[in-house]
Amino acid sequence: MRIPLWTLGIVLATTTPGIGHAQTAPVLFDGAGLKLMAADAKRYPLFAAEVERTRKSVDKAMRAGIQVPVPKDPGGGFTHEQHKRNYTALYGAGLLYRITGDKAYADFARAMLLEYAKLYPTLGPHPAAANEAAGRLFWQSLNDSVWLVYGIQGYDAIRDTLSAADRETIDTNMFRKMAEFLSVGNAKTFNLIHNHATWAAAGVGMTGYVLHDPELVARALKGTDKSGKAGFLAQVDQLFSPDGYYTEGPYYQRYAIQPFVVFADAIQANQPELKIWERHGGVLPKAIRTTIQLTYDGYFFPLNDAMPDKSLKTDELYQAVAIGYAATRDPSFLSIAKWQGRTVLTPAGLAVARDLAAGKAQPFAYTSQLFRDGPNGDEGGLAVMRSGTGDDAQVLVAKNSAMGMGHGHFDKLNWIFYNAGTAIVTDYGAARFLNIESKDGGRYLKENESWAKQTVAHNTLVVNETSNFGGKWKIGQDLAPKQLYFSGEGALKASTAEMAGAWPGVTFRRTLVQLDWGKSGPIVLDLLRATGAAPAIYDLPLHYAGQITDVGFPLQSNAAARPVLGKANGYQHIWVDATGTPTADTATLTWINGGTFYTYRMLPPAGTTMILGESGANDPRFNLRREPLLIQRVQGVKDATFVSLLEPHGAYDPAAETTVASVSQIRSLHHVRAADSDVIAIEPLKGPVVTIAVADDVTAGKPHTATIDGRTVRWTGHIARIEAGSK
Question: Strand pairing partners for 416?
Fold first, then answer.
């Protein structure tokens, strides 16, 4: 029989009990690790700083007094934010108690939880619930799940300090009731394969471990019916590809990674026989690395529903990096922790701080890589092409992934581009002001549906002013692009993908190339070929960041009145500033961003009209950002080929008032469609012509021949770079 250590006046637990034992010592944190945290809290700078940061936050909450208000507000409102502050304070107080031994922290957590135990049984659906499953403490049940994930960890850390009566009250009236509500009481959400269900499963499962309730654990792992068709294990198997790519996209990968790794850590501690870190080919450690890979200069690629200001400096990634390091001892995680400047108050966080102080960190290598989508890796993917291994090297991203469920956007074969520390070819992300009460309570705005998700809001083909799949994501969920080719090595990195079924009778294929181009850095070549069964309007938008410095063709400007481009599917939100009809020699647009110039050079189909516009029309509540775009439009054709090239060049120094190479350093761009290939010749102002040959066939090693500008070019494989004079 084990005597609870709190009855002996001993602060730190020394064991991790298994399921089903009447124990009160912590089960979510390693006992030996907790002892080390207490002993070494001040020894390692990163951990010591985290202790002090948390102490200040929790002490402030203690001085303010316990406030557990009756829920009434949506995101950003007082009650919403107070319950968030409470779970953060509860989590912090519990861990500070284990580290410092100061009973005041345990007493604060106890008093708060007793207040929750009084309130929670009286609550029904949240009064501010909208279109999501209603929570009790918050407007949506997802936030209740987040509360439980944090709250149960804080409770686990102080549970052995409580009297039997207080422990029973809190167990029964707060945590058990909350776990029951989030699982059987909200079974429709709990049994989804979705990030909302992941948070719920993590909270319910960890509650099961802490309360020594095998039923809650089984429910969390295998769904409410315990068949295994739902639950955490199914989510691990189905939400990640074999490369660790999360189907909803980078932003939600960031959000979902925390419950995945925190619960996995608890599973490993309590049920090591499940070998959770090895499941699905070791996908969870891969997922942590992939989450980091899907960033530029620390900020996540804002694909699908995403906020562009989210970076690796978030609670989710502090946890993921620490737990990932503890599970793998991969020294590159330490360099990420150093960049973050933060860790977590857990044994895993202590290990990070200790080994970082010991100089064990190795650089995290950012790579050019295809991140396949789908549980079997056969639903397209995200093709990332980088000019170097640093986190701020030039990046070209081809979004050839699956729909991504309800948070996905209608943007098949979209692309974005980063250079010189900033986004140059952009993705709007989501129309949302997170936790700003005046903006629909911080929820997704109606403009998220009418603009941000629509195809025209992205850098990809639009047919007849309509969006992919008629704007119905459930149709898109069954139709993914085919990733036909990817190469992330050498001076020519490339991705080719094809999409059929986004519109009836239309198939389009896109090749994106990152091509080394001397001192100015790589250029981007874009070849998009659409084939249709009937004449159509084909639009190809480019959303860019910067100020126009030059337009190569005459414009008809709408100076007196700004017309709106269309009536629906996102077109109702586009102001038309100017239009023009270029020739093959004049189709250029140049802009400046920071100290670099960018020229977008096009070979549009015959008869193409250029539309220069800006987002923000029909937006009476000013919910949309005003951002520029260019649309290449061709009408009344079945088939169309768009060839475009994006060239960074020159430099502008405002301090020195100097400008270098503000005009394009490329003289011309030529394209020939051969019998089974496309050949593109790029002629610089200085130096030899460079030819890029792209075969329809993606078979490696297959020989091809074509003629352009009187020259015969020969190559093998899908794509090749050929210098003038070579064969």
Answer: 397
641: which 2 tokens? 């080929």
| Phi then psi dihedrals of residue 279, to 5 deg | -65, 145
Please spell the DSSP secondary structure of 344-395, one letter per residue. -SSHHHHHHHHHHHTT---------EEEE-STTS-SEEEEEEESSSSTTS-E
166 Rama class: left (phi>0) / alpha (psi -120 to 50) / beta: alpha
Distance of CA 238 to CAs 106, 191, 376, Å?
Answer: 39, 13, 9
DSSP per-residue string spanning 449-462: IIIITSGGGSSS-E
Task: Check if the beta carbon of residue 300 is closer than 8 Å to that of residue 293.
Answer: no
CB–CB of 252/208 below 8 Å? no
Q: Which two tokens stand for residue 11?
A: 């602060």
What residues have CB less than 8 Å from 293, skipping those under 6 apart?
366, 367, 369, 371, 384
Cα-flanking dihedrals φ and ψ of residue 91, to 5°? -60, -50
Name the amino acid, one letter, at 389. T
Look at residue 479 and tell me whether its pLDDT is greater than 60: yes
pLDDT in tens, 392-438: 899 999 999 999 999 999 999 999 999 999 999 999 999 999 989 89
**Which two structure tokens, joined as six digits, stand for 145?**
């799940």
In the prediction, which pLDDT does 725 show? 54
Higher pLDDT, 552 or 7: 552
Which residues are tagged catalytic?
Answer: 252, 407
Predicted TM-score (pTM) of this structure = 0.94
Residues 6 or more apart in contact with residue 26 via CB below 8 angstroms: 13, 16, 34, 98, 156, 157, 159, 160
Q: Look at residue 1 and give its three-state secondary structure.
A: coil
Closest CA to 546 of 458, 650, 628: 628
**Whose CA is closest to 396, among 291, 493, 312?**
493
Asked whether the beta carbons of 447 and 322 are under 8 A apart, the reply is no
Both tokens assigned to 512:
């994106």
Q: What token pair was written down for 198?
A: 């992941």
With a CB cutoff of 8 Å and minimum separation 6, the contacts of 552 are: 582, 586, 587, 588, 589, 590
